[in-house]
Amino acid sequence: MSTGPAVVLLSGGMDSAVVLAEARAAGHSCHALSVRYGQRHSAELDAAARVAAALGAAAHRVVDVDLRAIGGSALTDDIAVPESPGAGIPVTYVPARNTVLLALALGHAEVIGANDIYVGVNAVDYSGYPDCRPEFVAAFERLARVATKAGVEGAPLRIQAPLLALGKASIVRRGLELGVDFALTVSC
User: How far apart are CA 90 and CA 147, in angstroms?
Assistant: First the structure.
């Protein structure tokens, strides 16, 4: 039931682990892509390596992009993380992070001939992040159609966001159904 290669953005957190399992269950040869973007800790990247190995990723690549140079987030700058979330977009939002991550995945997909990119964004429990909404995913997929050789030649890439409409309890249930060992993951 092989459906060809897919790029899976893998942070090492629970959502991306479930997305990797989803891509594998769909029959893809999974090429996990993690990004060291200047986040304050490396625990998630260590977890990503464990998850990629446990779930049988065909490859796992880590790309370095230092978003600390831009700053503007408690995850990449010297900004305190509040005890409880306030109104609006939270201080833990990393400006353009998912746009950058998907752009890297898009480039990798072109190189390996993948038609699918999997991402673990979630709009139900999205915490106010603008780049975790269905509108963002749809807009990026439209961009991929006009910004890539594959898209221009009539074989556009698909952005797969299977967790987009699921709450955390449903994500955990789906992960357990797919055999995800959540003890291997690290979530913030």
Answer: 30
CATH number at residue 141: 3.40.50.620
What pLDDT digit, counting tens, does each position of 123-136 carry?
776 567 777 789 98
Domain that holds residue 103: 5-184
Q: Total domain count for the chain?
A: 1
pLDDT at 14 over 80: yes
Transcribe 14-77 into DSSP letters: HHHHHHHHHHHHTT-EEEEEEEE-S-S-SHHHHHHHHHHHHTT-SEEEEEE--GGGT--STTTS
What is the Cα–Cα distance from 80 to 106, expressed in whole angstroms? Answer: 32
Position 74 pLDDT exceeds 80: no
